[in-house]
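Now for one protein, fold included:
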Amino acid sequence: MSISERPRANAPDSGRWFGRGCGDVWGILSTTVMYSTTLTVAFAVNFFAIPEFRHWRCIAILYNCIVMLQVASHLQCMWTNPGIAKDFLDQDLQQQMREEYHRLRAAGLSEDAAAKCPDSVKVCGVRPRKWWCVQCDTFRPKGAHHCKTCRACVLEMDHHCPWVNNCVGRRNHKFFILFVGYAWLACIWSVTILTHALLRIKQEPAWNQDFLGPANSRFSLRSCVAAQFLCLAGAALSFVFAIFASVMGCDQWTFLHEGHGVVDQKLHK
């Protein structure tokens, strides 16, 4: 089967896939929550928690590199066309399958029956699958599914993720896996740094005097109750998101091990 790695020249929104899903209120809300939480936790870690460490420079560099990699992979996943079928399938193949679908309809089959007719595609011992999408007017290869949110069929679709406000499919799945991995690392490290800093409140300061000011500054973790509350809230949020990232990571491990996306796993149950 011919699948291009570049969208056809006249493909709509081929260079700005995010525009297709930006009307999803839940997706916008989830993305806003994700970035707000990331910025809040990163602020607490960098300005209140990291100064409590003796080797704060090395820790700050490593921590912020992970956070930047998380943000970069998220943006890549969000802005990359996941592999909309009409944009990447060979147009000659599309036309052949369209003619086959219309032939079956002319023979008296209903839309659903014609779209699932096993005589038109190789079934390979599994139950007949829907190989033609009436809504998109496109051929659906194995692993492709129609997303109601994005209003399109996506090649090798894993699932629609509100956290990236996009579908996860053939062309952006690697970015999603990287995003989950970096997010998990950032969350675990945030919990560790913030918890360590909070436990050291009553101990002697370990930070260097030349960081941002003297250790007894009114904005330090020891003297500012708001900073203590922010670090505690940041540690709690990081812990919750670490659990969530672990669950998403388990789903992706199933995909890597068995080759079935989240949608396919539900259909095979």
